[in-house]
Amino acid sequence: MTLIAKKNKLHKISTWFSDKRLHILGWTIFIFYEAIIIGIFVGRFSTLSTYVIFYSLNIATFYFHAHVVLAFALKKINERWWKLPLFILIELGVYLILTVCLDYIVINYTDYNGPIKLIFNAAFFAAPIYRAIYFMCFATSYYFLLNFLEERKKIEDLEKQRLNNIIQIAKSENAFLKAQIQPHLLFNTLDFIYQSAKDSSPVAAEAIHSLAEMMRYSVDGNKDKEFILLNDEINQVENLINLHQLRKDHHVQLRFWYDDEIRNVKIIPLVLTILVENMFKHGELLTASHPAEVSLRIEHNQLIIETSNLTKAVKDNSGLSSGMENIKKRLEYTYGKNAEFSYFTDSNQYFKVMLVIKIK
């Protein structure tokens, strides 16, 4: 065995004694106390080997009853009534057999000269039965003490977890309040720039105004709402189109069709906005002969949203599929079978999207 292996073994032994030091101390005090009391009462003391043999049996009975018999017998509530008595009877029987065997060994193979003889009568069996029940009662108290300490630890852990959750919620609320302050500071700054620029540079001022409205909608609008009016989405899309028209000097070829009564229809937020944003990001919208289209209509108690746009010659599909799949999952989660969502690129290189939602 190498020196490192010996050190590891010694460390394990030392750790075990450290963990069990209370048990070792308790049993040492109990054995010395009981041995002295009994020795004084009967007027004689047994040999060391006798003490070692029989206290080893009693200590083993103590832990076996606590960790095996009670743990297994009390595991299922509806089976306790028959398992516990049966296991205790078996345990008593095994204890009696082991006691007889140990008595035989002590009497015949040690220097024992005490009064105990192997005479199988009531008095002979009464002592070990009493002794077994004595240690089993201590073991039962030990078992319930362990369970009590374990349950208390669980309660303490749950309380710590609850306090940690409260602290995390407080931190989240604080971060949320900070996050609210920062966008509003930005909106106030944009409003100042808009007011300053609307006379000297009306085009730039209009772009700033559209951008501010879009950002305000994304940050402040629709909080904690599952559904919004389609009117809000339409206004957002018109701001988006206006911003891109200003950027491209009004060369964007996009037709936006809808009837005014459709504004009162409710829908989940940002669906229409994301569809139009994808058109600007991934589509070719500057060709007059191939204008893009967005149409909203109601037919047969169904809201129908369609988009169509020419794809770019050099395709950049980064984020397109993930954006479409995100919309699809949100629709499935909210509407289930009451919504149909499809998209594809046709033979003329037009990317088309159709969304059909049944209106309740």
From TrEMBL:
Coiled coil: 146-180
Keyword set includes Transmembrane: yes
Cellular component terms per the entry's GO annotation: membrane
A Pfam family it matches: His_kinase
TM region positions: 21-42, 48-74, 86-107, 119-145
Source taxon at top rank: Bacteria
One GO MF term: phosphorelay sensor kinase activity
Keywords, ordered alphabetically: Coiled coil, Membrane, Transmembrane, Transmembrane helix
Residue span(s) of domain Signal transduction histidine kinase internal region: 173-250
Protein name as catalogued: Signal transduction histidine kinase internal region domain-containing protein
